[in-house]
Write a structure and sequence with these properties.
InterPro entries: DUF455, Ferritin-like_SF, UCP012318. Residues 48-69 are annotated as: Disordered. Pfam families: DUF455 (PF04305). By secondary structure, this protein is an all-alpha fold. It folds into 2 domains: 1-38 and 63-141, no CATH class; 143-263, no CATH class. 63% of the residues lie in helices and 0% in strands. It is built from 10 helices and no strands. The protein has helices spanning 5-13, 18-33, 72-100, 106-132, 145-152, 157-185, 189-220, 224-235, 246-252, 256-259. α1 runs antiparallel to α2 (18-33). The radius of gyration is 18 Å and the shape is globular. The protein starts with a helix and ends in a 16-residue tail after the last helix.
Length: 275
């Protein structure tokens, strides 16, 4: 009997080697799209994805400063941090499907399997830029804050959607424009182009999180904005800090009304294309 979609998701999570994970994610998305994988959720997801010993994982407080991309060393550090985010994002997408897909209609799986494949493509693009600088993913330390958020919300699809795509991934909408500007100022147009591609895709990823969060709220007949604010206060460690990329957040469905309930009180203004 063919492995069901949960078993395929588990196989992606159990693959520790980054390039092999990228290939597994893209193969899974292709096979699902072509109808080669049956619906089913018989396989449990792991508490933690498989990892190699590279990169070494440090607490966020011990992470070295990256600088502003003015030097090749600073650009390598910036690209490496982004590569790690995209690497973990592959696991986040497939864990979301394998852990919670049975709570949703098939189009949820369709959408998030495609997201996982896009995250894999993002990682591959950034890894290529690292290689152009004579570096590779794993050369520098990273932190595991993204997966810690996944572990915190492993019990509840509403909490997972509230925190991972709608807070953590949404932060990328705020910071990416300044990253693009830094790479452009350093004369690295190829890296800037990769960042622009990722920024466009991430709006759709955050919008998927918002859309399915609303789906659950509507099904339960609860207020979406208030429910999100409650979930963020309960499950997100830290403040949702402005300034925000207003236009990108609006495109993704994160309205000012929703943000006003969770943003740090120092400044609730939305500003486009800043970080």
């Amino acid at each position: 009997m063919l492995p069901d979609i949960s078993a395929v998701c588990r196989a992606v999570l159990d693959e520790p080697e980054p390039i092999a994970k990228v290939k597994a994610a893209r193969r899974a998305a292709r096979d699902w799209r072509l109808g080669r994988i049956p619906w089913g959720f018989a396989t449990a997801m792991p508490d933690c994805p498989a990892r190699t010993d590279r990169p070494p994982l440090l607490p966020p407080s011990r992470m070295p400063k990256r600088g502003r991309a003015g030097s090749p060393r600073a650009r390598i550090a910036m690209l490496h941090a982004l590569a790690h985010i995209e690497y973990v994002a592959i696991d986040l997408a497939f864990d979301l499907v394998g852990r919670f897909g049975g709570h949703f209609p098939q189009r949820f799986v369709d959408e998030w399997i495609a997201v996982g494949a896009e995250e894999a493509m993002h990682f591959a693009l950034i890894e290529r830029r690292l290689k152009a600088y004579g570096a590779r993913y794993g050369d520098l330390p990273a932190h595991d804050g993204l997966w810690e958020a996944a572990a915190e919300t492993a019990h509840d699809p509403l909490a997972r959607l509230a925190v991972v795509p709608m807070v953590l991934e949404a932060r990328g909408l705020d910071v990416t424009p300044s990253l693009i500007s830094r790479f452009e100022a350093a004369g690295d147009e190829r890296s800037a182009s990769v960042m622009r591609r990722i920024a466009d895709d991430e709006v759709d990823h955050v919008a998927a999180g918002v859309g399915w969060f609303r789906f659950l709220c509507d099904a339960a007949r609860i207020d979406c904005a208030r429910s999100w604010q409650s979930m963020v206060r309960l499950h997100f460690r830290g403040a949702v800090k402005p300034p925000f990329n207003d236009s990108a957040r609006d495109r993704a469905g994160l309205t000012k009304e929703m943000m006003a309930g969770v943003a740090a009180p120092c400044d609730l203004s939305h500003k486009p294309s800043v970080a």
